[in-house]
Amino acid sequence: MSAAEAAPTPFVRLGGEAGVRTLVDRFYDLMELEPAYAALRAMHPQSLDGSRDKLFWFLCGWLGGPDHYVQRFGHPRLRARHLPYAIGIAERDQWMACMIQALGDCGLEPALADRLTESLFGTADWMRNQGG
After folding, report:
1. CATH number at residue 116
2. Is residue 7 included in any domain, yes or no?
3. What is the pLDDT of residues 59-72, one digit of tens each?
4. What are the TM regions of this chain, as residue ranges (predicted)?
5. What is the largest CA-CA distance in the chain?
6. How many Cα atoms occupy the beta-carbon half-sphere of 21 within 13 Å?
7. What is the DSSP string of the chain?
8. Who's near 25: CB < 8 A, 6+ residues apart?
9. Lowest CB count within 10 Å: 34, 44, 110, 119, which one?
10. How confident is the model at residue 3 (pLDDT cuts 50, 70, 90)?
11. Residue 48 resides in a domain
């Protein structure tokens, strides 16, 4: 077995389902508490329970753990599911700032936090449907 095959997935490195749930809960808690994320919060339903669950289910699979989201809803089709929302550079950057703060608050090892930030930025940028 090569070193790459033996390396734990980001899901495992984050602490499995408990670690992913902690990250997702911190992300949405920050969105509700921090005035800097008010515009991002306004794009979400009044109750964040469904959003919390969907991001948790998605991130579990995206990070290399169980595919809870796919089992419930099929292929994520992220861009198509986000088309009803006006997402430009400001929204992308606000989402990323909130997630970066959540990653930092969860005490991830810096190399993992940097890797996730880079990957999440690519996905968040792909969600943009407004502006150049």
Report:
1. 1.10.490.10
2. no
3. 999 999 999 999 99
4. none
5. 49
6. 6
7. --HHHHSPPHHHHHTHHHHHHHHHHHHHHHHHH-GGGHHHHHTS-S--HHHHHHHHHHHHHHTTS--HHHHHHSS--HHHHHTTS---HHHHHHHHHHHHHHHHHTT--HHHHHHHHHHHHHHHHHT--S--
8. 52
9. 110
10. low
11. yes
User: Which residue segment(s) compose the domain that 46 sits in?
Assistant: 13-126
Select from 38, 30, 14 the least CA-distant residue to 109. Answer: 14
CA-to-CA distance for 86 and 68, rounded, in angstroms? 27
Structure tokens at 109: 């090892």
Note whether residue 5 is domain-resident.
Answer: no
Angle between helices 89-105 and 110-126 (to 10 degrees): 160
Helical axes 16-33 vs 89-105, angle rounded to 10°: 120
Structure tokens at 126: 């792909």
**Overall domain count for the chain:** 1
Who's near 83: CB < 8 A, 6+ residues apart?
129
Q: Encoding tokens for residue 119?
A: 């990957």
Task: Give me the pLDDT at residue 132, please.
Answer: 60
